[in-house]
Design a protein that fits this description.
The mean pLDDT is 94. The chain is α+β, with helices and mostly antiparallel strands. The longest helix is centred in the first third of the chain and has 16 residues. It has a 5-stranded mixed β-barrel with strand order 1-2-3-5-4. A 3-stranded antiparallel β-sheet has the order 6-7-8, with no helix packed on it. The two termini are 35 Å apart. The protein contains 8 helices and 8 strands, in the order βββαβαββαββααααα. Strand 2 and strand 3 form a beta hairpin.
């Protein structure tokens, strides 16, 4: 599939409405390319590292042929919040002047509901569990699946909670093999086929070059001086080990 070598840049021209979901309080904006985007604010409580995780994990998923809405670098002028009556949102817009993350808005999409009429393929479910185990995504649970159904296909969204170790400082040599017991709460684990088979399919594609490609998509100022190679080294070591896949498979077989 065709993938970008840089995030496309757009500018917000109209703040449409807040989306009161989750802790980051994203907003829906119109951009100068006539598109609608879910705006993930750099000034939100989770900080810039959440945007870094969104890009690295979202674009890694895309390169593994999983469906992810387009991610763009979205320039925000704080004047767009002048008409917003909520002072909390005004403050958030002001604190987020400059470069933010935009996620292509999927009109008419519906949230995935466990046990609902849409049943993902078992191999697809295994691939998503594998990705989330690799990237330590704590936020794909029955309570908050972060999956959308659009045109009868399953789309992955909201990866800001992944790679959570980087909030305390990422040390690839010490942390790459750390267990991830929260994979037991994954919304698709009970639906998934073998995670070890998924590892055999996907791990060969996740090489040094691919990881460098995804890490280099992160705008430099979001990294706040941190070396993107830390993410490359961490994910490369974790992929080569494969212990996370064995852990997920054990939990799948013996929930």
């Amino acid at each position: 599939m065709s993938v970008s070598t840089a995030l496309r840049s757009v500018a917000a021209i109209r703040y449409v409405t807040p989306l009161r979901e989750g802790g980051s309080l994203p907003g829906l904006v119109e951009a100068d390319d006539d598109g609608l985007y879910v705006l993930k604010f750099r000034g939100a409580g989770q900080g810039l590292r959440a945007l870094v995780a969104e890009v690295i994990v979202g674009e890694l998923a895309r390169r593994l042929d999983l469906l992810v809405p387009e991610l763009v670098e979205l320039e925000l002028d704080p004047v767009l919040g002048a008409a917003e009556p909520d002072p909390e949102i005004q403050d958030l817009i002001t604190a987020s002047a400059g470069s933010n993350l935009g996620v292509d808005f999927l009109p008419g999409s519906l949230p995935y509901t466990p046990g609902g009429p849409f049943m993902p393929d078992e191999r697809l479910a295994a691939d998503i569990v594998w990705l989330d185990a690799l990237t330590t995504n704590v936020d794909r649970t029955p309570r908050n699946p972060n999956l959308l159904i659009w045109h009868d296909r399953l789309w992955l969204i909201d990866h800001g909670a992944a790679l959570y170790l980087h909030h305390g400082g990422l040390d690839p040599a010490e942390q790459f093999d750390r267990p991830f017991p929260l994979i037991a709460d994954h919304v698709l684990l009970g639906r998934a086929a073998s995670i070890l088979d998924a590892h055999a399919r996907l791990a060969p594609a996740v090489d040094q070059a691919l990881l460098e490609e995804t890490a280099n998509l992160v705008p430099a100022d979001w990294l706040a001086g941190e070396d993107p190679d830390l993410y490359v080294d961490y994910l490369n070591r974790r992929t080569r080990s494969g212990a996370f896949a064995s852990e997920a498979e054990r939990v799948r077989i013996h929930p």
